[in-house]
Design a protein that fits this description.
By secondary structure, the chain is an all-alpha fold. It has two domains: 1-44; 83-287, MetI-like (MetI-like fold, Orthogonal Bundle). The chain has twelve helices and no strands.
Length: 288
């Protein structure tokens, strides 16, 4: 199947879902067995209302529905009136997501590599790691908010907590599964333990690491939103909570769609980087 055919099918499915979403509930009274209550605009709004709410939340139009003029400062005035407008909220959530992802990936990789190379460290710390990983992350979110406050630090820590174990276990398994013949050959050539780690263990583990990065970036975003749900001054999660308190389904759906777009972009970037760095592997060529 050609790429154009696949694209046409995807566009057709998206348009079909939008049409059903926009006008489907109007058939509920006549066909209640066919149209579920979930399509009620009170719960999920409508695409047209979501689009209008997006224009207002992003300061592109004013309260009368007239487009804001960039030249006379109407857009900047609208941005200044709302400390948590859509652009600011997205930027803050994205910043905390990337920070939590970076810290969680780095620490998870280092810990996984260290324990994967040492049977003694594995035996000592395995019960503690299993116990910590068994704690539901959502149960720790209120404690993190209490300890680190409502600012960015608590969101980064929450994202880190979600990401670090995912990366750790992948890296650990990758370090443990390195071909022992390669390690023996390196030792035979006089390589030190550091040289073995740098030239044999790390390259062999990179494939395992990158396998965890795509879900890890999504989990980092989930961790940040979870922290913003519990308590935050700004962010997309705060927008969702405020819209829910006002009963504005369109406002909640705008935030959800923004999160979806941000998540897709981040996952695509990570996948592109993965394909580039692992281009030497035959199985990665099909994903380019």
């Amino acid at each position: 199947m050609s790429r154009l055919t696949i694209l046409l099918w995807q566009v057709a499915i998206a348009l079909g879902l939008a049409v059903v979403w926009e006008w489907g509930y109007s058939l509920h009274d006549r066909l209640p067995w066919l149209v579920p209550e979930l399509l009620d605009p009170y719960f999920v709004s409508k695409p047209s209302a979501i689009y209008d709410q997006f224009l207002h939340a992003s300061c592109l139009v004013d309260k009368r529905g007239i487009w804001n003029d960039w030249g006379n400062g109407q857009f900047s005035k609208c941005m200044a009136r709302s400390e948590n407008n859509l652009w600011v909220a997205t930027l803050i959530t994205l910043k905390n997501t990337l920070a939590g992802f970076a810290v969680g990936t780095t620490s998870g990789f280092v810990l996984g590599l260290a324990l994967g190379r040492s049977d003694r460290l594995t035996a000592i710390f395995q019960p503690f790691i299993v116990a910590a990983n068994s704690i539901p992350r959502i149960a720790l979110a209120p404690i993190i908010i209490l300890a680190f406050g409502l600012g960015d630090a608590s969101k980064i820590v929450t994202a880190w907590l979600v990401v670090v174990f995912l990366v750790f276990f992948n890296t650990f398994e990758g370090a443990r599964s390195v071909d022992r013949d390669h390690i023996s050959a390196a030792r035979l050539l006089g390589a030190s333990e550091w040289q073995i780690t740098r030239t044999v263990i790390v390259p062999s583990t990179m494939a395992w690491l990158f396998a965890s990065l795509t879900p890890a970036i999504s989990f980092a975003l989930i961790g940040v939103i979870l922290g913003e749900f519990i308590g935050a001054q700004q962010g997309i999660g705060r927008m969702i909570i405020e819209a829910e308190a006002r009963g504005e389904a369109a406002g909640m759906m705008v935030a959800v769609f923004v999160l979806m777009i941000v998540g897709v972009i981040l996952a695509t970037i990570v996948r592109r980087v993965q394909n580039h760095l692992l281009r030497w592997r035959p199985q990665s060529a099909a994903n380019l």
